[in-house]
Write a structure and sequence with these properties.
This protein is an alpha+beta fold and about 190 residues long. It has one domain: Alpha-Beta Complex (Cyclic Phosphodiesterase, Chain: A), CATH 3.90.1140.10. It contains four helices and seven strands. It has helices at about 5-15, 30-35, 75-85, 115-125; strands at about 20-25, 60-70, 90-100, 105-110, 140-145, 155-175, 180-185. Strands 1, 2, 3, 4, 5, 6 and 7 form a seven-stranded antiparallel β-sheet that branches. It is globular and about 40 Å long. About 25% of the residues are buried.
């Protein structure tokens, strides 16, 4: 019986996948579903059972940084930075592009890399524990996750570019039960 270990020892030896937090900025886009995501053919949409993070995007947003180590930082600290150091960002969107992939492809609006977005990303990347899998920052607004080989047909320059203001900062993370939580802050308007 030398190899027997207690249940507690066994549980402590199990390594769980790390969970990562994400700082985003939400944008208000009128008629998001009717004018922006309605053009995605439902037959092309990638769905993963029991995972609501795929499909057609319901909430237009740009990711500032994904990969914050949730277990190493109090969410309130991240929220304080959002609340006290971030302001709205306004950009002009003029094209749809895609990220290719084997399991799925991401159809997206490209968001210009503004000095403001770079500053926010650097603030979180340099000051909080995080893991980055992609060396370059490509801000974007996801429209939909589609099946492999289906994304290219949506790529185009927009005939009518549009402006969007990201006016809400959000920290998305998991609570102690593993449920997703969104802690958000609406930025005051410039004249307030």
């Amino acid at each position: 019986m030398e190899n027997f270990i207690s249940l507690n020892e066994w549980l402590n030896e199990q390594k769980s996948e790390p969970t990562y937090g994400c700082v985003m900025m939400d944008g208000k886009i009128p008629d998001w579903k009717e004018k922006h995501t309605a053009g995605i053919d439902p037959k092309d949409v990638y769905i993963k059972p029991y995972d609501e993070s795929f499909g057609i995007e319901d909430n237009p947003h740009v990711t500032v940084i994904y990969g914050i180590h949730e277990d190493e930082i109090d969410p309130e600290i991240i929220h304080d930075v959002i609340q006290n150091e971030m302001k709205p960002v306004t950009v002009t969107i003029d094209n749809i592009s895609m990220f290719p992939g084997e399991e799925y492809e991401v159809v997206k609006y490209d968001v210009p890399v503004t000095d403001q977005l770079k500053k926010y990303r650097e603030r979180f990347e340099k000051n909080f524990p995080n893991t980055q899998k992609f060396p370059e920052y490509h801000p974007h607004m996801t429209l939909a996750y589609v099946k492999p080989g289906q994304g290219q047909k949506y790529v185009k320059q927009l005939e009518e570019p549009f402006e969007v203001t990201f006016d809400k900062g959000v920290y998305s993370f998991h609570d102690d039960e593993g449920e997703s939580v969104r802690k958000q802050h609406v930025f005051p308007k410039e004249d307030e």
